[in-house]
Amino acid sequence: MALSQLAAPWRLILPQDLYTRLHGHLFPGDRDEHGAVIAAGLATSARGVRLLARELFLAQDGKDYVPGKRGYRMLKADFIAERIQYCRAEGLAYLAIHNHGGRNRVGFSAADFRSHERGYPALLDIAEGLPVGALVFAENAIAGDIWLPGEKRIVLAGASVVGGSLLELAPEPRPRPPGRDAMYDRQARLFGDAGQHILARTKIGLIGAGGAGSLLGEYLGRLGVGSFVIADPERAELSNLPRLTAARRADALAWLAGEALPAWLRSIAMRFAAPKVNLAKRNILRANRHAHVNAIFGDFLEADIAAEFADCDYLFLAADTMRARLLFNAIVHQYLIPGVQVGAKVRVDPKTGEVLDAFSVVRPVTSESGCLLCNRLINSAKLQEESISEKERQRQRYIDEPDIVAPSVITLNATATAQAANDFLFYITGLQDPQATPAYMRLHPQGRRVWFDEPRKTPACPECGTESRSRLARGDSRRLPVIQRS
User: Fold this and answer.
1) What is the tens place of the pLDDT at every residue in 39-50?
2) In angstroms, rounded to a whole number, what is the distance separating the alpha carbons of residues 73 and 64?
3) CATH of the domain at 437
4) Are residues 440 and 298 part of one domain?
């Protein structure tokens, strides 16, 4: 589909660190005007178009940003030419930036619009089909004039700054939300009616609807999150029931699943038991009948299913395979969507049955914190093993023994998921402490200890790095690591 035919609204997504650098450049305290350029990837969906800020070029006062010929200030022609040619070569949108005074409202001047009309048709020719545009910032506001091929113009709806705590910017303050729903009265006393309204228009992606995913669906549904995408390819089993929220024996066809029954009867239970995503949807709608739940009984690794998660506002990874980690990690960075990986693990001596370790983990992942690949949390050997068929795996084994079934307990899952849900809540409502650590958490209930692991970030990383080859903020222009079908 041509860019000019894409649905509104158009929004800008900025990583926190990039926005902090830009804001400091535009508002150093001198009450003057300054300039910059952002190079941005593009992501399209039924909800509109997102411009994903990938790179920031600050214009040096007096050299790149100089007194204007018709307006107050302007970007010099050679600075513009270098950046527009870079954007064309990299397949990125070109966005010129300056600032006005004021705090909570901003708009372009008549001189600004005349400047756009003089210069942007030529920039569109250079960009060869990519958008070009202008952004103007006040301290707490943004306006945008986006130009598309054919000289169609789009008004930017607003911007979201993602990272430690969500910040939303618009040309003017949003109207006050409707009155408080009595159902949410007690929790809205924490984050206000505006916070409850934000939750209601938030779309979260839940990857996995097993023990951890089940709890997350319950928590987020009761918080009042308005939209969900959930994917899991598995059905409920008798041994899952202690960890699936509000699961019933009928969901697992328990009368056909007992170990003493013939294998052919147990196979019927495994074939016709309720999909785990259906249980999660049932729980969410019981908590919030107004929620929209897209429950996908299928594999997150399928291209069409992965695409549904690329349109979310926040991701929860509750499926512990290396391929799921790899794809989750890619979506977080390619589409600038904050996320978290949650899980619990119990290590038991296979000979004695002694519990060697038991812990829960909460690993926040953002475009700035350092990715799962940088932190060696995607095991290449296991990734390769998961990429081949079960028949091939059996053939490659050195010893012929069944897979060991790991212990799993609902309370260990609850520890991780409650922390992850709180992290999401304080992020999305803008209440996160600016000094809050981005560290991974490991909670060890045996010793009542909590460990923090500081994430590492590698500049040359192909996922989250800043080099040209990385997928950071590339949006729809880069293929995701999904299952490849012949």
Assistant:
1) 999 999 999 999
2) 10
3) 3.40.50.720
4) yes
